[in-house]
Amino acid sequence: MDDWEAVWPQENPSAEANSQRANRLKVRLDRLLREAAEVAVELSRTDGTIKGVPHYSVIEGQAHELGKQFSREVQQRQMSEVVASQALTAKCPACATRCKLESRKRKVRSVDGDTELQELVGYCPCCRRDFFPSPRSLGL
Ligand SMILES: [Zn+2]
Question: Cα 19 to the chain's mean position, in Å?
């Protein structure tokens, strides 16, 4: 066994651990989606939004609304992760002054409905205006 072979088993578990974690997360997501579906059905029967034997379009419409709500929640969390992982400064696109960035919430009309997303905004004291940093101004 050479040095590379001796090292490989130690590096491989990291990739394997990631794969195992991804599998656990997929199983958890599937379980949570099934549970959410059960709760949604029970709620619709309890609050009377679905009674007896409804037209299938009513069932489909409510399921689609729940899917859109889930989409907006994922969008919000993904944008929060993006904001949390980015630099705290960026160059002003007009004058290239490096400026401090702040996280702000902004209302956005997504394909799945209105939502509020976090994003980074810079204020340039030289230009006296706000700007939204581009990946290039973040140094990415
Ligand atoms: Zn500027």
Answer: 20
